[in-house]
Structures are given as C-alpha cells and as structure tokens.
Specification:
The chain folds into 2 domains: 10-110, no CATH class; 184-297, no CATH class. It has helices at 10-24, 31-40, 81-95, 98-107, 112-132, 139-148, 159-179, 183-190, 199-203, 226-236, 249-252, 273-283, 295-299; strands spanning 57-61, 76-80, 192-198, 215-220, 262-268, 289-291. It is an alpha+beta fold and 302 residues long.
Length: 302
C-alpha cells in the first residue's frame, strides 16, 4: 500500500526493480546489491566540504541491524530519503526479509509534504520564541543557563559539587518519577501512540476548539515515562509543551480532549504497532504520519 502523495510511486518502484534486475544479469549480484553499488559512486555528492552529511541525507545499513549488520564503515552508505525507501523495498523484494518491508512501511509516510511540514513546524516554533522573546531568544534565559552551567559560590558551590547534584537529580529524580506513575499512565507510555497537533488549538490553550483545522500527525514509540513522551512531542513541535507536564495525564485519563494543541488519536499496543500504522493509513488515506527521527535506529531498521 502506497499513498497517492508518497515520496515514491508503485510505478517508479516497479521500474527500478526491473532496471536493477536487468543490470544484474550475468554479474552474479542480486538486484539489491546492484542498486547499492550504483549509489556508492554518488557518495561524494552527499557530503559538504567538511565531510558532513548534507540536509536530507541519511545513513543506511547495507545489511540492516535486524539481520546482523554492524555499524562498520563498510556497512554504511549515505542515501537520500527517497533512496532509503527504495533500498529497503528492493531488499525486501529481492531477499524477502520481512524487516525490510517493515522499514519500508515506516517510511512511506515520509512524503515531501511530511518532511516540509516538520521543517515548517520547527521554524514556526522558533519564530514564536523570537517574537515572544523567550527561551533561546531571551537574555534572561541565556543568563540563567550560564549561571546554571558553572560554580556560583566558591567552595560552597564548586563545579564538582554542582555536577554531583546534577547527576543525583537526573538519576534518582527520574527513577522516583517513573515509580510514582499510575498504572494507567505506565501502560500508556509503554505502548506506542499517535498524536495530532493543531496550531489553532495551540493558540487557544484554555479553550476547547471544535474546528482544529489542519493537523500534524505524529507517532511516539514506547517510553519509560510521560516526560519522555512530552520530549518526543516537543521534538516534533518545539516548545509546544511546557517543562512541567504533570497536568497532561488528564489527556490519558480522558479528563481533557486536548492540551497545548495536542490530542491523542490512538494508542498502539507494542505488539501491534505495524498493524496500527497500516490501519491509520487506511483510515486516513491522504494524511501524513511523522515518525521520531530515531525510530529506525531503535527498531534496527536504519
């Protein structure tokens, strides 16, 4: 199943498959290997003068991690988003690896429009901060961050003491928070969830809007705490959720339908995430679903 506005069409995929199979004849290589070999000649075009990946360029494991692939230089190739989708689809068609088909399903929602939406959301969030003179654009914020990063009181507050307190807080504060989560919240964060963000609802934080307008749909994978879920949502739309996320449990418990522009669309049981994604596309044929940037790495589908 491929959406009409996906980054690649079924016709293109069939044409590419026929082409690589034809080029593979008499070489002893399969179609996937032939495709990868052709892309190895284009690596220099995918990095800048400093050798860093250009925007939109991704790392692809020639032999995926789920199939025993390593993070070695020999097993990594740089591909565009579209080439990455093609590579996993070809490997599935040629070698029949189910994991590659799963990776392909994860990426067919990464349409040009979806990628543009993500970049637009980040830019709009930055502009909101700039206009409101907050966070990075606030001199007060930067001054506080500067103080927080260094010693404030000689022997009474040395850098070593500061770092020790910071480590204790990061370790035990998090563990305590996770232990104190309700069973309902623990069950929710342990599963995947699909969320929708609305600029209209975000602008009317204290008012429940019926017409949310165009929404941004995002998939959040299994987490340890709701704070981790909130961090993922903030990665999709920076600064949409405040640091104190305690009140957002009302969404999980059904006490509120939307908060900070976000609403919960669906919960995906861990063992049924793939089916849940397919169901989402079936029910929302013309909608893009964004994924966390580290999703493929965590699932071994890079």
């Amino acid at each position: 199943m491929i959406l009409k506005n996906s980054i690649i069409t079924e016709t293109e995929l069939r044409s590419i498959l026929e082409d690589v199979l034809e080029k593979s004849k008499g070489t002893g290589a399969n179609g996937y290997d032939t495709y990868i070999s052709s892309k190895k000649t284009e690596q220099v075009d995918k990095v800048d003068n400093l050798g860093k990946r250009k925007p939109g360029i991704e790392r692809h494991h020639i032999t995926p991690k789920f199939d025993g692939g390593l993070d070695s230089k020999e097993n990594i190739i740089l591909l565009t988003v579209k080439e990455h989708v093609i590579a996993h689809w070809l490997r599935w068609k040629v070698l029949g690896k189910r994991g590659d088909y799963t990776a392909f399903l994860f990426r067919i929602g990464d349409t040009e429009e979806a990628l543009a939406q993500r970049n637009k959301a980040v830019q709009e969030a930055r502009e909101r901060d700039r206009a409101a003179n907050r966070n990075f654009f606030s001199s007060t914020f930067q001054r506080e961050m500067g103080f927080r990063g260094g010693p404030l009181g000689g022997s009474a507050n040395t850098e070593a003491q500061f770092r020790a307190r910071q480590q204790v807080g990061l370790t035990y504060g998090r563990l305590t928070g996770i232990r104190n989560q309700s069973s309902n919240l623990q069950e929710f964060v342990s599963n995947g969830s699909i969320w929708a963000f609305s600029e209209i609802a975000f602008a009317n934080k204290r008012v429940v809007v019926k017409d949310r307008g165009k929404e941004l749909f995002c998939l959040v994978t299994s987490k340890e705490s709701f704070a981790d879920v909130a961090r993922s949502l903030n990665a999709f739309v920076p600064n949409s959720i405040p640091q104190n996320v305690a009140s957002m449990h009302k969404l999980v418990n059904g006490e509120r339908k939307q908060m900070y522009g976000w609403r919960i669309v669906n919960t995906l049981i861990r063992s049924e995430v793939r089916e849940g994604i397919q169901d989402f596309y079936t029910q929302n044929a013309n909608t893009n679903l964004l994924f966390e940037e580290d999703l493929l790495v965590n699932e071994g589908f890079e």
